Amino acid sequence: MKKTSVKRGTIKDAAAVVLAGGESKRFGRDKSTAPLMEQTFTERVLEVLSPLFDTIFIGVKRKPHPLEDLVALPFIADSVDIKGPLAGIYTAMKTTTSPWLFVIACDMPLVRRELIVYLAERRDNNHCVVPVVRGKAQPLCAFYNKEALLERVEQYIRNGGRNLKDFLNSGDIKTCYVEEKELSAADPELVTFIDIDTAQDVAVVEKILREGTR
After folding, report:
1. Cis peptide leading into residue 64 (ω within 30°)
2. How many CB atoms lie within 10 A of CB 184?
């Protein structure tokens, strides 16, 4: 079976991690390996990321993982046994040598390359850059400064913290929240943030991809 290859990227001071967690109860299966046209969700995300980043990881709960037969990239298993995406983000921060980390969930196959670049341009002196859509923060399509946050994340977990959004609003963390009006300059229809929880949602995404509106 041929594995998906990844070309070198252009955001030189950041690595990326695709969080390919476990089974989704609402979706009924592991989204990371769910089919989307002729790819999996994860492969579709990687196709968007590959021109942007030199280093891309796949973050998983544990190894071995079925995606390892499909994707020729480093897989990193959570180094802490806690629920939620914070475990994968913390593990990726410990693994990468890049000062910045772009985090994205595997179930965002419509993510726009222009949106990622726009978020990267908003980093400045911030610790995180997080989109806000329909009034909700989207921390699983966001940039994190490893150098500023690694020790803070470690301490937060050690103190019993588990909620990623609570972490972003804690202490002296400088989080840049990017609102819809700004995001729409890079993603006019905000298709990046379409929820995929049912077979009907998958059909909508496939229609968008076929029509080339990504």
Report:
1. yes
2. 13
- Reported as a single tens digit per residue, the pLDDT across 164-197 is 999 999 889 999 999 999 999 999 999 999 989 8
Place of tokens 């470690």: 154
How far is residue 52's CA from residue 192's CA, in Å, rounded to a whole number?
16
Domains and CATH numbers, the chain: 14-211 (3.90.550.10)
Residue 89 to residues 57, 59, 83, 94: CA-CA distances in angstroms?
A: 11, 8, 12, 9
- Calpha distance 131→142 (Å, rounded): 7
> With the CA atoms of 131, 135, 139 and 142 taken in that order, what torsion angle do they form, in degrees rounded to the nearest 10?
0
pTM: 0.93
Residues with pLDDT less than 70, the chain: 1-9, 22-23, 213-214
